[in-house]
Amino acid sequence: MPLDKPHYxxxxxxxxxxxxxxxxxxxxxxxxxxVALQYQLEESEWWPAETLQxxxxxxxxxxxxxxxxxxxxxxxxxxxxxxxxxxxxxLEAFRQIPILCRADLQEHGDAVHSRxxxxxxxxxxxxxxxxxxxRPIAVTRNAVTNLFFNALNLRYxxxxxxxxxxxxxSIRALRGAQLKAAxxxxxxxxxxxxxxxxxxxxxxxxxxxxxxxxxxxxxxxxLVTYPSILRELLQYSNEAGLTPDTLAEVSTMAEMLDPAxxxxxxxIWGVPLHDIYSSQEMGLMALECPAERHYHVQxxxxxxxxxxxxxxxxxxxxxxxxxxxxLHNFAMPLIRYEVGDYAExxxxxxxxxxxxxxxxxxxxxxxxxxxxxxxxxxxxxxDLVKDVMSKAPVRQAQLIQQTEDSVDFRIVVADTIDQDxxxxxxxxxxxxxxxxxxxxxxVVDRFERPKNGKFEDVVCNVETAANMTTRISTxxxxxx
Length: 480
Hints:
disordered C terminus, alpha/beta, GMP Synthetase, Chain A, domain 3, 12-stranded mixed beta sheet, globular, single chain
C-alpha cells in the first residue's frame, strides 16, 4: 500500500488567472496545464511498474514515428523497427535501436532535429552543455519539455513537504534571469504554478566566507547548491562556529553526491540533504525518494536504461551506463542517448511507488581513471580523502590524471606540509591506484571553479582506446 502520499499545503492554491478569483482559483492557461499534469503525476507515481512501462511504450511509439518521418538522422536509424504494428512495440525491440553518443550529436546535430516539430509543442530553445565530458553539445528543447521540467520540479518540492511560502536560496553558476536577480538583490518565485516565497541567488564563484555570510543574512529555509559548494560551506561553518540557523533542508544537484556529505550536513547543520539527478540535455531524470536514500526515475518524462558492458539491462545491485530517452522532446529527439554517467540499479522501494529505483549515481565516465593496461577504474576518492586528512593538514583535494602512468594529487593545506606528511599522502594515493602509476603531490592555494560552477573530485584527461572499451564490473562497480 502507498505510504505517506504527498499533498499540497491546504491553503496554498494555484496562481489565479482571473481578477478577483481567489478561491477556488482559476489558473491561467499556462498554470492550468501545469496543475493538470501534476494531478496526473500524483496518480501515476503509484502505478505498478508494469503499467508505467506499458504507458512508456505507447508514448515511445508516438516519438519514434515522429522521429522516423521528420528527422533525417533517425529516418535510417529507426529502420530496425520496420514491420512492428501499432501497439506492438516491446522493450526488446526498442533496444535494437543503436545507442546515441555525444559524438553523434556533434557530427550530425542538425540532422537529428525534426524538420516538422509539432507547432502546439511551442517554440524551441537551445541548451548548450558545459562540456564537462570534453564534448560540448547543443540540444533544442521546447515548451513541452519545459512544462515537464516544471511539473517534476513541483513533484520534488511536494515529495519533501516544502512550504512554498518560505524563503529559498540558491548558490550556483548564474546566468540570465538568475544573474540579473542576484545583481538586483531580488528574489524569484520557486514553486511553479503556485504563489511562493522568494528564491535568492548567489554566484558560486564567491568566496566561501561570503557565501556563509550571505546565507545568514538572507535567512532561507531551503538551500539548493552543488555538493562541492556544500562541502566547503560545512567545513568553513564548522571551523568558524557559525551556522545558517534558519535552514530546514538542503538540496544538491549537478555533481556526484558523496553519501558521507549527507551525514556531515546532519552533524554540522542539523538538517537533511536531498539530491536530484539531472542533465542539461535531458532535464530532471531522477528525484530522491522521500522515504529512502535512493532515487526514483521520472518515468513519465524519461525512459532510463542502465546497461552493462554487453549493452544488456543491469539487474538490482549491478552497475552500468545510463542510457536515456526523452519521451517528449519532438523538436530534437534524444533516443537511447548515452548520458555519460554510471549508476547502480535498485530494487523496489518501501514507499510503494512503482517508479524504478537507482540506488546510487556513481558519476561520469571522465571520473574514471585509466590504468596502464588500458582498463578504467573508480579510485574510491571519498575514503582516500578521509585517509589523507588523518595524515596531513589537507583541507581539499582533487585527483587529476594527465598520462596513463601518473596522476596529480592536488591539495589545499591548512598550514604547511612537511616531507614526512607529503610522503604519507603519496603512499595513501598510491594505495588506491593500479601498479605502475606514479603520484605527484601538487600543493595549491585554492581550487578555481570552472565557468559552469561545477567541481569534479576526480578528472581523467587521458584519451586512449579504453575510451571505447571500458569494462566496469556490473556487480561491484570496480573495473575488470
